[in-house]
Design brief:
With about 375 residues, the chain is α+β, with helices and mostly antiparallel strands. It has 6 helices and 24 strands. The strands form 10 sheets. A 3-stranded antiparallel beta sheet has the order 3-6-10, with helices on one face. About 15% of the residues are buried.
């Protein structure tokens, strides 16, 4: 503290220097006594350093720690060093926390996520494989908010998951549907093979190479299995050879003679998947069963005339002689008719009536008087 000494507080009979020396000694002694009596003792807080954790983060945030230093003498006390240090500590804690809250950061961590991702960079026609992908909690952080960490974490999850499946996944190409027909090729000689439809649904073959590879593999399998299927499920068909038989019409009216008709079953009319003999037997059975009816429907009845011998008289004898009679014969079977017996007989009578008179004039002998017919 400040201290003043009046002029002439000390004197000397020796010299000015001696007076000054005595005055200085007194000044120092009195000044110190005055300071000791009237001055105060000031204690200064010690220097401190430490870390403070930010404590004003929103829910979900993780606070950072911030280093803070306090210089010596920031706090003072006129009581004691302990009092100065206690004040300094209080200030250190208050200022350190305020500094941490003002300058620290709150870190928000994205949550753990898991899900499935499907490869989406396949060539046209390809179906991507699906993999499971997981992202650990905290893969993305934000100093803004939990919502921001969640949002950015979700973006990363989707990007990394899709990249992972596109990098490591496979593309599967599904074969297209195929349909066609195959001819059975293991039939015995003489038989006709059937044609059997065969088809594949789509997706019989999957290829991780290309659509063409899937389709080519499916086609090869289709050709192999289709022929085998036709050989197992198709039929061998035998067709009959031509069969014929002769049948006589047997439903003519009395006196009529039925004509003989040939009934034919054409080759290939009947078939059998058993044998050639079975197909031929069917045709022969048809001949046997249908031939007579066919003859009765399509044949004709022939009627032959009965024998007639009517008498015709000679008409050209001279006077005085007698005209004799002559028999004109039309033998049985000379005429025939497909109409009736009467029609056949009528034909015979037409001949007799037409030629009989001339025949009598030509062959008859005129009888002399009294001569009798022989």
């Amino acid at each position: 503290m400040s201290y003043s000494q009046a002029f002439g507080a000390s004197n000397s009979t020796i010299s000015q220097a001696d007076a000054d020396a005595k005055g200085l000694a007194k000044f120092n002694a009195d000044g110190q006594s005055n300071a000791n009596a009237n001055g105060i003792c000031t204690f200064y807080s010690v220097a401190r350093s430490g870390s403070f954790t930010k404590n004003n983060c929103a829910s979900g945030g993780t606070a950072s720690s911030v280093s803070y230093s306090q210089a010596a003498g920031v706090s003072t006390s006129t009581i004691s060093q302990a009092d100065a240090d206690s004040k300094g500590l209080t200030k250190f804690n208050t200022d350190g926390q305020a500094n941490a809250n003002a300058n620290g950061i709150c870190t928000f961590y994205s949550p753990a996520q898991s899900g499935n991702f499907t490869k989406n960079d396949c060539a046209p026609g390809g179906a991507g494989s699906t993999i499971s992908f997981s992202q650990a909690a905290g893969a993305v952080t934000s100093n803004s908010s939990q919502a921001d960490a969640d949002y950015r974490g979700n973006i990363k999850f989707n990007q990394d998951g899709q990249y992972q499946v596109n990098t490591t996944g496979a593309c599967y190409f599904r074969s297209k549907a195929i349909s066609g027909s195959f001819v059975k090729n293991n039939c015995p000689a003489g038989s006709s093979p059937s044609t059997v439809p065969y088809y594949f649904n789509d997706g019989v073959i999957y290829s991780s190479i290309s659509q063409a590879d899937a389709d080519n593999q499916a086609q090869a399998l289709f050709n192999s299995q289709g022929q085998a299927y036709a050989n197992s499920n198709g039929t061998c068909t035998y067709y009959n050879a031509a069969k014929s038989g002769q049948f006589t019409k047997n439903n003519c009216a009395a006196g009529g003679t039925g004509s003989t008709v040939t009934y034919t079953v054409a080759a290939g009319t009947y078939s059998s998947t058993t044998s050639q003999a079975a197909a031929d037997a069917l045709a022969q059975s048809a001949v046997n069963n249908n031939g007579q009816a066919y003859a009765n429907s399509n044949g004709v009845c022939v009627f032959y005339n009965v024998m007639i011998n009517p008498k015709f008289y000679k008409t050209d004898c001279p006077a005085g002689t007698t005209n004799p009679y002559v028999y004109y014969y039309v033998y049985a079977g000379t005429y025939q008719s497909t109409i009736s017996q009467a029609d056949a007989d009528n034909k015979a009578w037409i001949e007799a009536n037409t030629y009989g008179p001339a025949y009598a004039n030509e062959t008859g002998r005129c009888l002399n008087p009294g001569e009798l017919e022989e």
